[in-house]
Structures are given as C-alpha cells and as structure tokens.
C-alpha cells in the first residue's frame, strides 16, 4: 500500500489507506449500488487468489519495467509495443530467452507504467488468452 500512496494515475495522485471498516457490505440482489462496489473474488483481474502462489510471491513496488506473461507464440514484439504505446512511450522490450511466453517492457516513466499496467492487465491476445502484467524487479 505504501508504494501506491501518492502515485499518479491519469494525472491525479492516488490516496491509499487502510479502511476503517472491517468488512465491505455488497448491495443485495436487485438493490442499486451506483457502481461503487464490486466483488473481485472470482474475477480474472484478481491475481492474488491463492496465498503462496507465484503471483503472491512476486509482488514488487511500481517501477518503469513491467513483467508480461501468458503471451501466445503468435504475438509479436511489434504487436505488444503497439498496444503499450497507447499508454506511454515504450523505451525497451525483451522476450525471456528461455520462455517466449514472458517478456519485459520498459516505459518512459513511472506514471506511464502504472497506467499501462492498469489498462493492459487481462488484455485479450486472441484464442481466449489474456495478457498478465505486473511490476518487475528486473531491468532491461
């Protein structure tokens, strides 16, 4: 949480703090919620469902380098760069030498990398596959 507090997203600083509430009450079925609450328990966007999983162990603070995974063999470097260029300036790209299903991509600054992560995580790459994006500990 401390890494995200005051970090800019879409030109505005995020304010992140622990809630004073012990639990979240979701609206009852048929009750209007104005889109303010959503249960991500079974969502593909929820990356930390299983404590102890690789996702759970590989949580790193925000930085300019993003780790991409679940890349189909048919997707090219240029296709990924083009998709990420919609959210910032791509400064570097590298597929993992031993596993082309993963890559690192570097954006121009921290704000662009945060925006790209938010926009590109779970991005459809065809054949019912979706891109996984997280902050990386590695550099390019």
Write the layout of secondary structure elements.
Blueprint: E1 8-9, E2 12-13, H1 54-57, E3 65-69, H2 77-85, E4 90-95, E5 103-107, H3 110-120, E6 132-135
Antiparallel strand pairs: 1-2, 3-5, 3-6, 4-5
Number of separate helices: 3
Shape: globular
Q: What percent of the residues sit in helical stretches (DSSP H or I)?
A: 10-25%
Cα Rg = 17 Å
Low-confidence stretches: none
Please write the string of helix (H) and strand (E) elements.
EEHEHEEHE
Number of E strands: 6
Largest sheet: 4 strands, antiparallel
Query: By helix and strand content, what is the structural category?
Result: alpha+beta
Strand order of the largest sheet: 4-5-3-6
Mean pLDDT, all residues = 87
- Spatial separation of the terminal alpha carbons: 26 Å
What percent of residues are in strands? Answer: 15-25%
